[in-house]
Fold:
Amino acid sequence: MSTILQIETATSVCSVAISVNGKTIAVKEEKAANIHASSLTLFIADVMEMAAISYTDLDAIAVSKGPGSYTGLRIGVSTAKGLCFALDKPLIAINTLKMMANGYLLQHPNFGGLICPMIDARRMEVFTAVFDHHLNEVENTHAKIVDEKSFVLELQSNYVSFIGDGAEKCKAVIDNPNAHFHLENYNSAAFMSNLAYAAYQSAEFEDVAYFEPFYLKDFVFTTPKKKV
Structure:
């Protein structure tokens, strides 16, 4: 039996779940700005209590590795690595966009088109990738500025489901009858369960000492404007 603690902090959603053999048995999450630092460890304690297990019962720690929010990813990955060091457990890293697409497929098992998860970057830019209904990557993870010509080839002969917080701002730009937008929360640690279990079975573990989040873009420091 494989018990895995799962952490997702790539967006404004702070989400923690426990899975056993790829099935989610406990989850706690909340969507709010800047709550990861104050809420993540509390959420972890809550799901451990909900699942009625101790930290020594865990077999691995899984974390959503990005792309996404620089600060959110730092908090999530740092927490996951700290637990791995303290408990001497392996670290599993899951691509955030793949986790989102997996969540969509879990909720729409008969879907036969393409899934395009989008994470809001800034202005009209998103972090995105495209997956088929078998979760194969059709387009690699990349940063993209969305305009009316975006995804034209994909939409010519495919029904495309755009999901995530980046999809909301693209809804008014991508005007195509094959484009459909689903704005529910797919940034849930619960959607990591079967992916983390498969990685655990294959021993796809990260080097805890050297692992870093997949930021995709360098963090840009800004200087606050002086108050007049």
Q: What stands out?
A: The longest strand covers residues 23-31.
